Amino acid sequence: MKNMSLSRVMILAAISALAMLSLAAPSSAQQGTTPAAPSAPVAQQAPVAPAPAAQAAQPSDAVATPAEREGKLLKAAAAELKELSPWSMFKSADVLVKAVMLGLAFASLVTWTIFIAKMLELAVVQRKLRSALAKIADARSLAEAQFALGAKGSVLASFLAAAMREARLSAGISSDAGIKERAASSFAEIVRAEARRIRLGMGLLATIGATSPFVGLFGTVWGIMNSFIGISKSQTTNLAVVAPGIAEALLATAFGLVAAIPAVIIYNHFARVTKGYLELVSRASGAAGRLLSRDLDRTHVSGSHSRTAAE
Asked: Model-level pTM greater than 0.85?
């Protein structure tokens, strides 16, 4: 009996142990599934973490390259801006822009050369002509006027020589009006020749003053076009990057204005001075005409006196 009761007790103990194990299994399953829930996001975030390292490991990244390129361009532009001067802009300009600037600089040199030469020429010829007019103010004949002038060359000497040549060629002609008309024609030719001579170089000044701004503008347009091409290649619109190219282009316009403005001012100045000198030439022509008229009248008077004495 004792053995049977002992066996029953052991069976009951085994059953109770199995029951305890069956009750403990769901709780442990719940505890095992509860921490498994946050493990899913961890599994999703796991491939994201090494992504920057993988991107950094790539030698040429499409996203990072423009930023690096822009940084390099900004550094280069900053270095250029520190050394930005007219000479550095000229050296770094395009070949065509350099040619435009050199041409405009040569035009400016020509302008100032003409200015110095014409100033000296006009001062000398005006002084000579005024002195010649003062010398013949009291002359009574062409011969006396030529003697007073001497060998000094001036446009007045040309008028006197033309008047005497016409009087000599018209010897024996009784028509004074015809002689005066032919002499006036010779005087007009001398005036036109003197006007052409004294205006020599002024046409070049007018050309430089009228075309230099447009030539400089052509260089500016060409330089800005190259700057926009550089912008498209660098793929950046930062002003520090494109400023040197635009400054080089605008330098051509500055050269054009430097060449044009003095040329226009000097041309207008010489137009006024030349007009005053041509008025002096007209006075000299009138003085020669009056001396010729006196000689003709004196010839007729002497001829009438000789005829009267003969009668």
From this structure: no
Written as six digits, the tokens of 98 are: 């350099």
Asked, for residue 290, whether it belongs to a domain, the answer is yes
- Distance between CA atoms of 266 and 114, rounded to whole angstroms? 9
Q: Which domain holds residue 270?
A: 70-310
pLDDT tens digits, residue range 168-190? 888 777 778 888 899 999 999 99
How many domains is the chain partitioned into structurally? Answer: 1
Q: Is residue 2 in a domain?
A: no
Distance CA 123, CA 128 (A): 9
